[in-house]
Q: What sequence folds into this?
């Protein structure tokens, strides 16, 4: 396969997201600009300009009309995807590290940073899809304050029933999405290792977390039981679950500050493919020359994209050997 | 006057009849449809040197039909915005490029496959070749001929090296090194051997400076009566004719930088050294006649 390189950003990529159909890809980096790309040919559709700081996170509404972005300028901005206009800005006392639309797109959660005397919070806003997209509420509908350890990532479980958050101390917490009550806490990763990414399966009944402790875990949304563990040899920044094939893709690499002192060969800047069920590593894809910060899988499972500290987004479309690969037991199962 | 009148006006020549009169005029392209549905286009053009080039192009048109979600099709028609505003359709070369081909074959024992590929693949050639060389190299103990380093030999304190002296000078460096590592026993009896009695110690009283790169005297020539103007490279060129020269040492005066009049030349092979000694002794170099002999060990 020949990856398509998207070089619209001047600084390291922080997050990339496909829309629901997988025809558009959105990327954010530390350089204040959001990029929108056609995934079929890598053409840039446009950019969303307006943030004043590094953009940490992005999400697309399920109907691809609104785009939410959270940045280091302490704001969340809602964008009209088609025109590139900013339709709403919510301000916070601290930076916004993660935004995510609920499954139906009617709610938006945001994780805010703990800094300058402010505790880390998870806030939820109602989002309206009227004819006038700028008609949005100013008040949040729910606010969860993380008192002991700040949340770094969060997302919505199936049917928007729970909010699941990953924390700086390696714990995963489950909250009631309506009341904001804490339901369960699990020490998923080693103590005091940050959870860097949390991505749900297509049906949101389980999710994968990528930890600084060089492992990724597959966790059930309902009871937070750890289903699978994938062990890597480098701190992980991101993990994604593929649809169509039972794989997971992990990305990482040594910390950015150590990059200059080691060669690319030792840097482990590869996307690692693991079998979701058997937990074996089945292959790697090279290409980046910086640690991988974010990986997103095409919703139809036909490809994936990775964004790296080197400022590139690489768009891959899987070819035949990827789809043909099966374990012997899987093949037997298929024959029956 | 009549002469000019008979010829067509030069202005006409340029404007109307250029095609007909100009020998460099190109015939128009011809397109024919072949039986199998392909099209053949023949066109002519001029290359950089002004030569006429005929280009025959065969094209087959295939229609790729792709069914996409209507919303996706609609989104394909969206106008560009932001930094892309006003740019033409299709990927822009400054933001989009195609990477090198990647072969991705998932496999269960991915790590082994990777190792195998690293072995056979041409990736790091020199690294590989070095490994290859070392793979067939067997470690052989010089005391008991076992497969371990001499220094690790369990008998190193009780036995003398098996083939002492029988070794040719082919591998002098390793030879010396091992001997030292083994603490090479010269005489039997008590386990302690004073340094001057150890192997090699008889001639080379104790360890000389220079570590393991000390010169090998077996294949070293001492050249005397060397001109003051001599250069190391000249000497090397002179002696390289007889075999591989590992080292050329030309003694030089520290202050003036001129040669002191003697030099040492080390060969890999003692036979080469002997030949060189024979041939070069009495050779006229610069204004002096060289004297070449085998170097004696310093005592």
A:
């Amino acid at each position: 396969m020949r990856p398509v390189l998207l070089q619209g950003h001047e600084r390291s990529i922080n997050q990339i997201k496909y829309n629901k159909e997988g025809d558009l890809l959105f990327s954010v980096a530390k350089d204040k600009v959001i990029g929108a790309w056609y995934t079929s040919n890598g053409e840039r559709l446009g950019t969303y300009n307006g943030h004043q700081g590094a953009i940490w996170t992005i999400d697309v509404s399920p109907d691809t009309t609104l785009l939410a972005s959270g940045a280091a300028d302490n704001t969340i901005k809602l964008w009209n995807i088609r025109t590139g206009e900013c339709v709403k800005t919510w301000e916070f006392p601290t930076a916004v590290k993660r935004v995510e639309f609920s499954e139906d797109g009617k709610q938006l959660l945001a994780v805010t940073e703990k800094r300058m005397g402010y505790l880390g919070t998870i806030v939820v806003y109602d989002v309206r899809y009227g004819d006038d997209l700028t008609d949005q509420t100013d008040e949040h509908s729910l606010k969860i304050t993380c008192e002991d350890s700040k949340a770094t990532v969060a997302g919505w479980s199936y049917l928007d029933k729970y909010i699941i958050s990953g924390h700086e101390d390696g714990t995963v917490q489950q909250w009631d999405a309506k009341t904001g009550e804490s339901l369960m806490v699990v020490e998923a990763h080693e103590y005091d290792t940050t959870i860097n990414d949390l991505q749900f399966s297509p049906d949101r009944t389980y999710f994968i977390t990528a930890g600084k402790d060089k492992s990724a875990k597959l966790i059930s949304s309902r009871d937070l039981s750890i289903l699978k563990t994938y062990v890597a040899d480098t701190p992980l920044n991101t993990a994604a679950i593929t649809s169509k094939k039972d794989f997971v893709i992990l990305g990482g690499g040594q910390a950015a500050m150590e990059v200059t002192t080691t060669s690319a060969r030792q840097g482990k800047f590869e996307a690692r493919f693991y079998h979701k069920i058997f937990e074996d590593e089945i292959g790697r894809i090279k290409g980046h020359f910086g640690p991988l910060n974010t990986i997103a899988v095409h919703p139809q499972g036909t490809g994936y994209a990775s964004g790296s500290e080197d400022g590139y987004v690489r768009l891959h479309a899987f070819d035949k050997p990827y789809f043909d690969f099966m374990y012997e037991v899987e093949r037997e199962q298929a024959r029956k | 006057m009549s002469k000019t009148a008979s010829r067509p006006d030069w202005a006409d020549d340029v404007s109307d009849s250029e095609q007909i009169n100009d020998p460099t005029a190109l015939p128009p392209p011809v397109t024919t449809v072949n039986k199998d549905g392909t099209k053949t286009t023949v066109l002519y053009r001029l290359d950089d040197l002004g030569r006429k080039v005929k280009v025959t192009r065969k094209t087959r048109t295939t229609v790729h039909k792709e069914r996409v979600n209507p919303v996706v099709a609609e989104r394909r028609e969206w106008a560009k915005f932001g930094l892309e505003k006003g740019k033409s359709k299709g990927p822009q070369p400054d933001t989009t490029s195609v990477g090198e081909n990647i072969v991705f074959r998932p496999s269960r024992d991915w790590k082994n496959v990777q190792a195998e590929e690293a072995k056979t693949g041409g990736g790091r050639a020199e690294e590989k070749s070095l490994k290859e060389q070392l793979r067939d190299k067997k470690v052989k103990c010089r005391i008991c001929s076992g497969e371990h380093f001499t220094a690790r030999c369990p008998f190193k304190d009780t036995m003398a090296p098996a083939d002492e002296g029988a070794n040719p000078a082919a591998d002098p460096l390793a030879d010396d090194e091992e001997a030292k590592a083994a603490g090479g026993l010269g005489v039997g009896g008590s386990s302690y051997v004073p340094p001057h009695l150890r192997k090699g110690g008889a001639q080379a009283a104790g360890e000389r400076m220079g570590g393991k790169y000390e010169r090998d005297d077996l294949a070293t020539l001492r050249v005397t009566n060397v001109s003051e103007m001599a250069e190391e490279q000249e000497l090397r060129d002179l002696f390289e004719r007889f075999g591989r020269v590992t080292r050329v040492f030309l003694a030089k005066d520290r202050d003036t930088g001129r040669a002191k009049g003697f030099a040492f030349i080390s060969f890999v092979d003692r036979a080469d050294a002997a030949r060189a000694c024979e041939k070069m002794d009495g050779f006229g170099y610069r204004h002096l006649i060289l004297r070449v002999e085998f170097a004696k060990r310093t005592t």
